[in-house]
Amino acid sequence: MTRERRGKIIATLGPASSSGDTIADLYEAGADVFRLNFSHGSHEDHAARIAKIRALEKKVGHPIGILMDLQGPKLRLGTFANEEGIVLKGNTAFRLDMDDTPGDETRVGLPHPEIFKALNPGATLLVNDGHVRFEVLDCGEDWANTKVIVPGSLTNRKGVNVPDVTLPLPAMTDKDIADLNFGLDLGVDWVALSFVQNPKDVIELKARVNDRATVIAKLEKPAALRHLDEIVQEADGVMIARGDLGVEVPLEQVPVLQKRIIRACRSVGKPSIVATQMLETMIKSPMPTRAEASDVATAVYDGADAVMLSAETAAGDYPVRAVTTMDRIISQVESDEHYLNMMAAGHKAHGDSAPDSITAAARQVAANLKAKAIVTYTTSGSTTLRAARERPPARILCLTPSESVARRFALVWGVHSVVKLAHTPDERIGAVAIETAAKEGLAEDGDLLVVTAGVPFGTVGSTNMIRVVRMGEQY
User: Fold this and answer.
1) Calpha distance 182→34 (Å, rounded)
2) pLDDT digits (tens, 9 = 90+) for 95-142
3) Whether residue 276 lies in the annotated active site
4) Domains of the chain, each with CATH number or no CATH
5) pTM for this model (two decimals)
6) Which of the residues 218, 321, 363, 372 is marked catalytic?
7) Of 12, 124, 214, 276, which residue is the catalytic one?
8) Does the annotation count 76 as an active-site position?
9) How far is CA 18 from the centre of its chain?
10) In terms of Cα–Cα distance, which of 125, 211, 218, 142 is closest to 176?
């Protein structure tokens, strides 16, 4: 299936979308990548979903991406004696400690010694997605006395955020490591790492993945933003996880940070994903709010590679309709005559290597000649990533011998991937591009294609050739 739009859609699978028929409907509606959230569900659940995705991929004859999302270290309160929870008033004292005795209106357990090690007087603790806020007055190795700054109710095991400090947490828990090995054995294409704080977290995951998949750094903590450029450099892509990020930084900063992160990704040719609460209303409603539609549109105008649906497709009442709605919004934005102008306005010169220069030239040639597609022959995927970074007006047709590379590009802006043989004779490069573009419905007789490749063919990182060919002619 050839999508007309450039921006990609990630749909999360869950109880509302686990059947083979629903997964097929989601793909037909516009989902390019399926996300498996390992915070929920068993290994058996996820294995069954992966099998259904791969069966669908074989049926449609087009690469489909699978993204596994690791849970990461979850910080939670203990329990309360009253199962209905407690209500805290403002400016009252409240103690957090390592005692597992059920809590009350004066104290509760917090079974995370790493938090107490990092706390200092004046630090902020946010509970229940920031609905309750504490200020630390004094603290020790296993306790903290706080003052309630924002009052509210608390129930058992509510989540805790600590925005002011970098916590001495491992990049992955034992659960994450077990989940990772399971997902890699089943052939996932992308691995998303939650609660990244610094580049070392990404480096550790990449060492474990060992090139069996590509790595997404989820940015949801202020500590990560202090190392943004280094994290973007180390990761293969970035997810702007606005849920926890919006808890740990002031809400008014989130739109600005979204733009900053997308720009940082595009500058080095790494894909970016905007996630969380994009069409939240559609969990229960067949229509989103106008504000949600504008939110999706803003991410597209910002230049994000992909936008993501979470509970909307995993647990909502209208999973297929949510994808259809997102598809329509993206398509409408991309039909705006100013959209590609905005993409061009954000274009910067990238490097002085031959591959960078060839790819930049391909974009310019395609724009000048109104070519229908830029065809990239690639083994590792680097040539196609460079082409996507340029945000050309023409579609990008990626020809690669690697099935895993083709699947990964299901997430990247403007790319339509096709698995081709490992070797194409140099004199056949133009002919194969024409044959494939025609078969995939990307161009017709008389249309122009701009072809980039490395000659001799198949050498990784050797893009050094650009050629213009016309559909219908012999090469």
Assistant:
1) 17
2) 999 999 999 999 999 999 999 999 999 999 999 989 999 999 999 999
3) yes
4) 8-73+171-337 (3.20.20.60), 86-161 (2.40.33.10), 347-470 (3.40.1380.20)
5) 0.93
6) 218
7) 276
8) yes
9) 21
10) 218
